[in-house]
Amino acid sequence: MSLSKCFKAYDVRAVYPNPLNEQGAWKVGYAAADFLLREAVAGGITGTTAKSIAVGYDMRKSSPSLRDALIRGLRDGGADVVNVGLVDTPFTYFAVNHLQCAGAIMVTASHNPAQYNGFKISKHHAKPVGQDTGLTAIRLVTESLDEATAIKHGGALREVDLWDAYRAHIVQFIDPALMSGAKRLKIVVDASNGMAGTMLPKVFDGVRGLEIERLNFDNSSGEFLHEPNPLVESNLKQLQDTVRATGAQAGFCFDGDADRCAAVDERGVTVGCDILLAWMVQDMLRTKQGASVVYDLRSSRSVSEIIKECGGIPVESRVGHVFMKAKLAESKALIGGELSGHFYFEDMFGADSGARAFVAVLSALCNATKPLSQLLAPCVRYTQSGEINFENNDKLGALAKLKSTFPEAKTHELDGLSIDAGEWWANIRMSNTEPLLRLNLEAKDRATVERMVAELEPILGHRVAH
Q: Lowest-confidence range among 134-148, 282-296, 375-389, 423-437?
């Protein structure tokens, strides 16, 4: 398989060492240097770091050698490199802004199993580089690159420790009562043997009111006890059991590179990320009436309702961090959230941050007089199907048939097909990489959800078991 197959919609990612290896990492670095430096000039980035690209890497076994090859490619391509070290992905978003770099690249495969690795690329101001915003251009350059014959520009390399600055930026958002120990919270955190195991102690040790029961913080082996994906319910079992056994007030699970954070309540029940967003924004909008909040269009209708009730402006977005970040910037929103557990913050440069989401929940929780389950209950107004996948080789045909089947319903096609039939509403999206349709349906009661899923199923195709 060629390096080109490693380029996905939002990043470069594949199994190591075949098809992704050090040779490919050099090519990505060389091509990314050219692209990011040109974008920085176009964006008006000036100063001593305008030719610099920040590089971070995660704890996977293959990350150090891929990092070294990537850095060599970046320097050969004409960039100066700032190696920020073993960090979580949101750290690189902080670094590119703190240092005013031309861009940043994180060596990581996020929530994928240990044999995977890859690169998450950002432009200046941590603007995302996806398929339509630069990745295709980078891929095309890599296809004709040869390290032996390429012109070597010899960029500089330096190492910088930004942990103190990163910590200071994050902890400023923690409630002062929790910082001082005047208020106390007992929680459980599952770091998934990923980068949260490095980030949490460096950032949150010293928060006097926080008692953390640690699960899977050791990331020295580069292996995972469970898949580092908090969206899969089975990956949360250890966290849920520990929350119940210890009487903790909440539990949190991070993914492999700690840009996502999921929560369970004091009963060990998983909290939907759209419901968590609806609860968090209430606290934020108390002091910032009229602010915008961006939400994933698959979210519960209660999200937009609560944003309006709290004096905010709901902004619907397509799924995916490139689209979410663009909407956040366009609407100057306070926060945005996806069902996947990515939460985006204006005060984190519009980027997603598991640590910042963690802080937002902690600060809201420390002032509460009720358990988390009771605080969240008013946000759960409807019944959701959850995401159901259907195999279908004629995805466009199925969407067209759905639209004609419900001619009286309100529809829009911002991302796939969204249908509002009054007593139920749904979004059906096409997978970018597989012959799949993804259904999310909601209604006022379980009976309607089950009836409508059964009615739509013959049109959508063969249901894929979890």
A: 423-437
Average pLDDT over residues 246-274: 98
In the predicted structure, residue 92 carries a pLDDT above the cut 70: yes
**165-184 pLDDT per residue, tens:** 999 999 999 999 999 999 99
What pLDDT shows up at residue 367?
85
CA distance 54 to 47: 15
* Phi, psi for 88 (deg, rounded to 5): -85, 160
Rounded to whole angstroms, how far apart are CA atoms 293 and 442? Answer: 21
3-state SS of the chain: helix, strand, coil percent to 5? Answer: 40, 25, 35
Indicate the DSSP class of residue 137.
H
Catalytic residue (one of 110, 299, 304, 317): 110
| Angle, in degrees to the nearest 10, between helices 354-366 and 196-204 | 50
CATH number for 191: 3.40.120.10
The pLDDT tens digits for 191-201 are 999 999 999 99
Domain for residue 259, yes or no?
no
d(CA 364, CA 345): 16
Residues 6 or more apart in contact with residue 334 via CB below 8 angstroms: 281, 284, 285, 288, 291, 292, 293, 312, 345, 346
Domain residues for the domain of 425 are 383-463
Dist CA 452 CA 155 (whole Å): 59
Position 36 scores a pLDDT of: 98
Q: What is the pLDDT of residue 465?
A: 80
Q: What pLDDT, on a 0 to 100 scale, did the predictor assign at position 1?
A: 55
Contacts with 106 (C-beta within 8 Å, 6 or more apart), sequence order = 55, 56, 57, 58, 87, 89, 92, 119, 120, 122, 257
Is 340 an annotated catalytic residue?
Answer: no
**Residues in CB range of 59: below 8 A, 6 or more apart:** 86, 193, 194, 195, 197, 198, 219, 220, 222
Q: Are 417 and 403 in contact (CB under 8 A)?
A: yes
Q: For 332-433, where are the alpha helices, taking DSSP H only?
A: 354-366, 372-376, 395-405
Q: 22 and 111 share a domain?
A: yes
In this structure, the answer to whether residues 292 and 441 fall within a common structural domain is no
- Cα(141)–Cα(157) distance, rounded to whole angstroms? 23
157 alpha-carbon distance from chain centroid = 29
Q: Using CA atoms, how far apart are residues 169 and 354, in angstroms rounded to an integer?
A: 14
The residues near 283 (Cβ < 8 Å, ≥ 6 apart) are 360, 363, 364
pLDDT at 433 > cutoff 70: no
Beta strands 417-420 and 424-430 are antiparallel
The token pair at 213 is 């029961």
Q: Is residue 167 part of a domain?
A: no
Instruction: List, for residues 312-346, the tens digit of each pLDDT value.
Output: 999 999 999 889 999 999 999 999 999 999 999 99
